[in-house]
Structure formats: structure tokens, C-alpha cells
Write a structure and sequence with these properties.
The protein is 29% helix and 24% strand. The protein has 15 helices and 24 strands. The protein has a nine-stranded mixed beta sheet. The protein has a four-stranded parallel beta sheet with strand order 4-3-5-6, with helices on both faces. A four-stranded antiparallel beta sheet has the order 16-17-18-19, with no helix packed on it. Strand 23, helix 14 and strand 24 form a beta-alpha-beta unit. Helix 10 crosses helix 11. The longest helix has 17 residues. The structure holds methylmalonyl-coenzyme A (MCA) and adenosine monophosphate.
């Protein structure tokens, strides 16, 4: 098998696959030709089956074809957030050991320097789909024999930040991605007639796999946008049938006065995930549009785990039922002992969607699985008497801002290294636009040497923009409990209204 063949089996050659931002439409035959050319180009660059292809480029149809071509050629796609600085990139590249790195032409010099010692090659692709890789691909044949792979072979590695220390590369197999796409096409009733508005980034599971793989597997089409813009998405609704987004998409759409019942009349499905959708947003949306947002729950390591029903109640504040092929249970976070569903505990899942482990980290992998094969998500939840899963918090110290994960420790380490900082605590506070706003509380021991702007400026080249604190607060000392542990819950309580009051 190969995920590429599984995904593209339904797409009729003449059927539309992707409407480009300039309005031109690529058919499924075009998809076959573009991916064939990119796959040949990868081979010409020496990429072998099983090799990693690391990609940090702006969203474009060519970037998407590069993902599919990598899988088609039997190699492993490694997408990287475009916001990552060179400092962050160095770790991913060093850890994954890619045979090829594809970057923006503007980053080529810096990336080439980074990979020099690794023997990886560097080629380029820009936001308009041009660059040295595209040039090479243009000269290649338009057919390519898809490389056969076993179901357990890797199709992608997606990095997810660690609560302690370094990011971990989640290894996703052909079977993981194929099974999750098939389950969701069925559950969410995608067909050839669907037109999905694709406004998510394609370096994370949501935009890259959930949105794209489902569209492909259904033989449907997408309107492809470089980024989310509320007015733009609103203008596309009459031509579309489905939208997938993070909660910020929905709060920003609600801020558009033109969002009405009439505006959504042709849309059959609005899906939200990657971060909690406030019950208030769900209810406001229903009142304004007469449609209920379908909230689902997933993770990089697992793809999608649960979904509210297509038919039946989509209950605000819940993430619905486990997918038909996913087993889900609630366990005691410390002991792993199963709890009654109505008790709050850690959510554990098992199914064909669950990843093959963390790249080169067998110990971390072992620590996150129970002996019977259940994966410990680190999310805290319960199951109500109707079977709906509720996520009530996170056992892991994680902030989700606008659907992007930020691990406080990574930000704290950077801040702690600044002059005059005794220590810092990075917390997420309720934020009207992003859900949570990254906030740093910096202890100076009573002798502040930097101000807020200086702290933020110092982080500029060290951390991706979305990880940088929106606000920095100064205190003499951080509050600690009797065990000496910083009381983040207390800090969150004390500063709860920072972004929402006034
Ligand atoms: C942009 N900024 C952010 C974020 N996005 N800061 C914190 N968190 C963010 N998410 C910064 C920008 O750099 C900018 O800084 C300032 O905030 C305002 O930018 P703005 O133009 O308003 O933002 P935007 O470009 O419109 O982006 C907001 C967004 C975007 C549309 C919500 O963040 C987005 O597309 N998020 C989707 C993330 C996603 O796909 N997650 C899925 C992960 P400055 O003004 O200084 O330049 S996969 C996953 O979680 C699992 C599997 C799952 O369940 O799906
Ligand atoms: P990531 O590591 O980017 O895959 O993020 C996965 C995390 O996002 C999960 O472990 C949850 O904490 C969170 N998440 C995803 N979907 C939802 C949702 N619908 N509600 C609450 N949290 C969610």
C-alpha cells in the first residue's frame, strides 16, 4: 500500500481538486502530474524511501503537492511551522537528520549553514510555489510509479513540544493517516460534492492531514487560502459546503456583522478543533446562523479521537463521542487505574490512529503508553451519562494560543537566561481572540533591570512569534506552595482578567 494511492483513489481525473488563490483550478489529473514531477525531483536529489524531507515553506498548492509527492516517493514528510526561528530549526533538523531540507529562498543561506555538517541538501520553494525545487520539478515527467510501503512504514514525522525539555517527533504511519481519514470521511459524510474552505496552516495535523486527507479521500475539492481572514472566508461561504478551523476562526467570524443565517445557507458543516471551543461561542454561533458547530478532539500523536455527532446533538462544551475505531477511557493520572467514566481523570486512547512512537526516543514513548497499549494523552476529562467526552483541563503544562501549542518551559528557559531575571513563570490567561494569551510573570528579586518591551525584544530571534508573551508582568518573587512548587494556578487566578477586563 501507499497512503498516496489510498487518498487519491476516489478523485476522478477531470474533477476539481483545488482552487488556487488566483482562482485557477487544479483537477485531480493535475494533482497526479504535479506530485509525479515533485516525486521525480526528490529522487533526483537523492531522497530514498524512508528518508526525511524537512519542509519549512509558506503555504501554497506546491507545498501541499510536495507533501503528497514525498509520501508517494516513500519518504517521510516533516513539516515545520514557518514561524520557527533558525535557533528553533537547528534542533529539529539535527534531531530528524533529513536527507533534504526545503525552505524559503530568503532562509536558504541560514539553513545551508545549519545543515552543512549533516550532509543534507537544501532546495527552495517560495510562497508563490517557485524556487529551485519547483524549477527541478518542472523538467520532470508527469507520471511516477508510486513506491509501495507497508502499513506501518512512516509517512510523516510531526514535532510536538515536550512538557520537559526537547520537542518530540511523533512518527505517523501510512496506516495511521489512512485509517483516520477513512473514519472521518464516513462520520462527517464527505462526498465528491463537498467544497472545503481551507484556511488553516499546512504544517500541523489539522490543516495538513485532517482537512487535506479527508478532501482527497472523498474525491472532493477545496478552496485554498494562504491564511485565515474572516472577511475573505465569509465571502467564500456561498460557494462552499464545509469549513474546518480553530476556535479563533469562529470568534473572528462572529465579529463580522454579515455573518447571518442567509450567509451560511449552502454550508452543511462547520468543524472546530485544536483548542477548546467556548460553550459561549458555540451558542452564539447557533443563535446567529441556525447551525451548530461540530467540535472534535485530536492530537498530533493520534489524529482525531472524538467527534460530536453528525446527526444528533452537538453539545456545547463537549468533544462528542470516541470515533468508531477508537477506544477511549478515563484513568487515574498517577496509577493508570481505570476510573468510572463520570470521574475526572486522564484521557487514554487506543486505535489504528495512534502513532508509532517518538522518533529516536524509545523511553519517552514507553512512558506515554500503558502496558495494554493505551496512549496517555495528558488531557483531563470525563464522560457524561450520555457518552459525551468532556475535556476539563490539561494534566500537561501547555498553553494553546490560537490553536498553536506553547510549552511554558521552553519560554521560561529563554526568559530565565535574561539579565536581572531570577526566575519566571509562563502561564496562559483567557484571551478573547486567541483563547489563551501567553503571559510571563517575571521575578526580579526586587531589582528589575529590564522592562516589558525589553523582555519581548530579547526573545525576538530566539522564539517563534506565537510563543512570545503578549504581556510580561514583574513581581519580586513567585508564589510557591509548601513543596516549593511555583503556584501557577494562583498566578492564573490573580491575573485572570488581564486580557478580558476593559
Ligand atoms: C498569530 N499570532 C499569534 C498567533 N497567530 N500569537 C499567538 N498565537 C497565535 N496562534 C501573532 C502574529 O504573529 C501577530 O504578531 C499577532 O499575533 C496578530 O496576528 P494576526 O494577524 O491577528 O494573526 P493571524 O495571522 O490572523 O493568525 C491567527 C490564526 C492563526 C488565524 C488563529 O494563528 C492560525 O491559523 N492558527 C491555526 C493553528 C493550527 O492550525 N493549529 C492546529 C494544530 P505581530 O503583530 O507581532 O506580528 S494541530 C492540533 O492541534 C491537533 C492535531 C488538533 O486537534 O487539530
Ligand atoms: P497538538 O499537540 O498540537 O496536537 O495539540 C493537541 C492538544 O490540543 C490536545 O492534547 C488537547 O489538549 C488540545 N485539543 C485539541 N482539540 C481540542 C478540543 N476540541 N478541545 C480541547 N482541547 C483540544
Amino acid at each position: 500500500m501507499n497512503l498516496f494511492d489510498t487518498l487519491t483513489a476516489a478523485g476522478a481525473p477531470a474533477a476539481p481538486f483545488l482552487e488556487r488563490p488566483d482562482g485557477a483550478v487544479d483537477s485531480y489529473a493535475d494533482l497526479q502530474a504535479h506530485t509525479a514531477r515533485f516525486a521525480h525531483a526528490l529522487c533526483a536529489l537523492g531522497v530514498q524511501p524512508g528518508d526525511r524531507v524537512a519542509v519549512q515553506v509558506e503555504k501554497s498548492p506546491e507545498n501541499l503537492y510536495l507533501y503528497l509527492a514525498t509520501v508517494r516517493a516513500g519518504a517521510v514528510f516533516l513539516p515545520l511551522n514557518t514561524a520557527y526561528t533558525l535557533n528553533e530549526l537547528a534542533y529539529f533538523i539535527g534531531d530528524a537528520g533529513p536527507a533534504l531540507v526545503v525552505c524559503d529562498p530568503g532562509a536558504e543561506a541560514g539553513v545551508s549553514e545549519l545543515v552543512e555538517a549533516l550532509g543534507a541538501r537544501v532546495v527552495t520553494l517560495d510562497a508563490s510555489g517557485k524556487g529551485s525545487l519547483a524549477d527541478l520539478a518542472a523538467a520532470q515527467p508527469a507520471t511516477f510509479p508510486t513506491v509501495a510501503r507497508a502499513p506501518g512504514d512512516l509517512a510523516a514525522i510531526c514535532y510536538t513540544s515536550g512538557t520537559t525539555g526537547r520537542s518530540k517527533g511523533a512518527m505517523l504511519t501510512h496506516a495511521n493517516l489512512a485509517s483516520n481519514a477513512a473514519t472521518l470521511v464516513d462520520l462527517w459524510r464527505f462526498t465528491v460534492r463537498d467544497v472545503l474552505i481551507h484556511a488553516l496552516p499546512i504544517y500541523h495535523v489539522h490543516g495538513l492531514f485532517v482537512a487535506t486527507n479527508i478532501t482527497l479521500m472523498a474525491g472532493a475539492s477545496m478552496i485554498f487560502r494562504p491564511r485565515f481572514d474572516a472577511a475573505d472566508v465569509l465571502s467564500l461561504l456561498p460557494r462552499a459546503s464545509a469549513l474546518m478551523g480553530v476556535p479563533t476562526f469562529y470568534t473572528r467570524l462572529l465579529a463580522q456583522p454579515d455573518l447571518t443565517r442567509e450567509a451560511v445557507v449552502g454550508m452543511r458543516l462547520f468543524i472546530s478543533g485544536s483548542a477548546p471551543l467556548l460553550a459561549e461561542t458555540h451558542l452564539d454561533w447557533s443563535a446567529r446562523t441556525g447551525t451548530a458547530i461540530l467540535e472534535r478532539y485530536g492530537m498530533t500523536e493520534t489524529g482525531m479521537n472524538t467527534s460530536n455527532p453528525y446527526d444528533g446533538d452537538r453539545v456545547a462544551g463537549t468533544v462528542g463521542f470516541p470515533l468508531p475505531d477508537v477506544a477511549l477511557r478515563i484513568a487515574d493520572p498517577e496509577t493508570g487505574a481505570p476510573l468510572a467514566p463520570s470521574e475526572i481523570g486522564v484521557i487514554e486512547v487506543k486505535g489504528p490512529n495512534v502513532f508509532a512512537g517518538y522518533w529516536k526516543m524509545p523511553d519517552k514513548t514507553a512512558a506515554e503508553f500503558r502496558p495494554d497499549g493505551f496512549f496517555i494523552t495528558g488531557d483531563l476529562g470525563k464522560i457524561d451519562d450520555r457518552g459525551y467526552v468532556h475535556i476539563v483541563g490539561r494534566g500537561k503544562d501547555l498553553i494553546i494560543a490560537g490553536g498553536f501549542n506553547v510549552y511554558p518551559k521552553e519560554v521560561e528557559e529563554e526568559i530565565d537566561a535574561l539579565p536581572g531575571v531570577v526566575e519566571s513563570a509562563v502561564i496562559g490567561l483567557p484571551h478573547p481572540d486567541l483563547g489563551e494569551g501567553v503571559t510571563a510573570v517575571v521575578a526580579t528579586g526586587g531589582k528589575p533591570v529590564m522592562d516589558e518591551a525589553a523582555v519581548i525584544a530579547a526573545l525576538k530571534d530566539r522564539l517563534a512569534r506565537f510563543k512570545q508573551p503578549k504581556r510580561v508582568l514583574f513581581v519580586d518573587d513567585l508564589p510557591r506552595n509548601a513543596m516549593g512548587k511555583v503556584q501557577k494556578a494562583l498566578l492564573r487566578q490573580q491575573h485572570a482578567g488581564l486580557y478580558t477586563d476593559g
